[in-house]
Amino acid sequence: MIPGGNPQALIRQLNDLKPAPENILIVGHEPYLSRLIALLSSGGTSATIDMKKGSLCKLETEDLEYGHCATLKWLLTPRQMELMV
To answer: Shortest CA distance to 61 belongs to which of 27, 16, 15?
Structure first.
């Protein structure tokens, strides 16, 4: 993903994938990635999501749509993942 990407276009591209994947991993840059997570989990881009470099988060959704459609299940910083090893 590019930093100034269009979330509506991304959601449209993901929904057009055939066959529909069960899981999707999105890798991106800030601030776009945090704004996308905020949009999908809260419906707006003003929620503060602090994605450090190398962070990982999990969202769950039944139907990927523009706006509040997902639940933020967890967010791990690189330090937290390091402690898990």
So the answer is: 15
Is the C-alpha dihedral spanning 47, 5, 58, 21 positive or negative?
positive
The 3-state secondary structure of the chain, one letter per residue:
CCCCCCHHHHHHHHHCCCCCCCCCCCCCCCCHHHHHHHHHHHCCCCCCCCCCCCCEEEEECCCCCCCCCCEEEEEECHHHHHHHC
Q: Please state, in angstroms and rounded to a whole number, the distance separating the CA atoms of residues 56 and 30.
A: 13
For residue range 54-85, list pLDDT tens digits in order: 999 999 999 999 999 999 999 999 999 999 98
